[in-house]
Give the backbone structure.
Amino acid sequence: MAVLALAGCASDPAPNEQMRLTEQAITQAKAVGATADDMPEMKLAEAKYDRAKGNMADESYRNARMRAEQAELDARLAEAKVLTQKSEEQVNVLNTRIVRLRKQLGDAQ
């Protein structure tokens, strides 16, 4: 039984493409402003990606794939949260301008 379990693990191919996608997602999240200091999701993404790299070195490809997939999702979530926050800030600035313009128009009449 143990031999079959080991054979099953050995047959998992190296998740090179997933590792590339994960690294790309982390880089992209950082590019929009996600940092591990400000975003717990980014900290998780980096930690899981580091573990995935360790799993790759150990040839534990199934665990590497799973952790890399999780890290990619965490990085994409961090990116989405940063972009949402930036969008909300822009909406708030526009709303402030609209209120100011309405007040100026009201005062002019």
Summary: DSSP finds four helices and no strands in the chain. The CA atoms of residues 24 and 72 lie 8 Å apart. Residues 61-108 form the longest helix (48 residues). The helical segments are 2-10, 16-31, 40-57, 61-108.
